[in-house]
Design a protein that fits this description.
Layout: H1 2-26, E1 49-51, H2 53-58, E2 66-73, H3 80-96, E3 101-102, E4 110-116, H4 117-120, E5 129-135, H5 150-155, E6 159-168, E7 173-174, E8 178-184, E9 194-197, E10 203-206, E11 217-218, E12 232-233
Length: about 240
């Protein structure tokens, strides 16, 4: 009876040690779910890239803010089966962390999700992750930009300040460029010169075809030059 009492703690310790060694032997990393393969190792130095750097830094102080995230996985010299395994492992890990907005697999090496920065930040430590790109892939992430002041817009890495040229239609001339609106960094823009009228009726010329916020009238014909094809500077 005494022998049984003495051996029980030793047996418990032995089982614990065996389990710990088994995990070490598999080379698995505590950052990811235990179903992941031995390719999920920590980087020996440095971190994977995070773009844009301004947004990565900004989100350190905004842990509850959701952004669109593209996680670029290592793909060179890997079979399609291995890439699929890594993709499934990454999405499984993200679900464990509470990420629910995961897009269907359309790439063998990119994982597209909407997540909070703390849910993905430490993945930069993994060898398998080439980098993380943050932005406005989904519209609901950046629809706040329209309501920001120009000062706040300039400080928000998810938004872009749009500069326009005021048009004096009566004199057929333009004034110097000035910041006029705030749009999402993911807005679809073109290189075409465009003309629009703001909510107060002022005409503007833009060096891009970006869509502006509510109240703006895009492609306003009354704001375009007549025959000359361009306006002269106002004097």
């Amino acid at each position: 009876m005494i022998k049984s009492v003495v051996m029980q703690p030793q047996r418990t310790i032995l089982i614990t040690l065996v389990a710990a060694l088994a995990l070490l032997g598999c080379g698995r990393d505590s950052l990811v779910e235990q179903t992941c393969t031995d390719s999920w190792a920590r980087r020996t130095s440095g971190l994977a890239r995070c773009d844009p750097g301004k947004l990565c830094t900004q989100l350190e102080g905004q842990p509850e803010r959701e952004v669109s995230v593209v996680i670029n996985l290592l793909a060179d010299h890997l079979s399609e089966a291995h890439r699929l395994e890594n993709w499934n492992c990454m999405t499984s890990t993200l679900r464990v962390r509470g990420v629910t907005k995961i897009e269907p697999r359309t790439s063998s090496f990119d994982v597209f999700v909407t997540a909070k920065w703390p849910q993905v930040r430490d993945l930069l430590q993994l060898e398998l992750v080439n980098g993380i790109e943050l932005g406005c892939r989904t519209g609901d992430v950046c629809n706040h930009c329209d309501g920001l002041s120009l000062e706040a817009c300039a400080q928000d890495a998810l938004c872009v300040v749009v500069h326009g040229v005021p048009v004096n239609v009566d004199r057929m001339c333009v004034k110097p460029p000035t910041p006029v609106a705030c749009i999402s960094a993911g807005s679809a823009c073109t290189d075409a010169i465009s003309f629009a009228r703001d909510p107060q009726g002022q005409c503007w010329q833009f060096g891009s075809g970006c869509r502006l916020g509510e109240g703006w009238h895009a492609d306003a014909p009354e704001c375009r030059p007549e025959d000359t094809g361009q306006f002269e500077p106002c004097r």
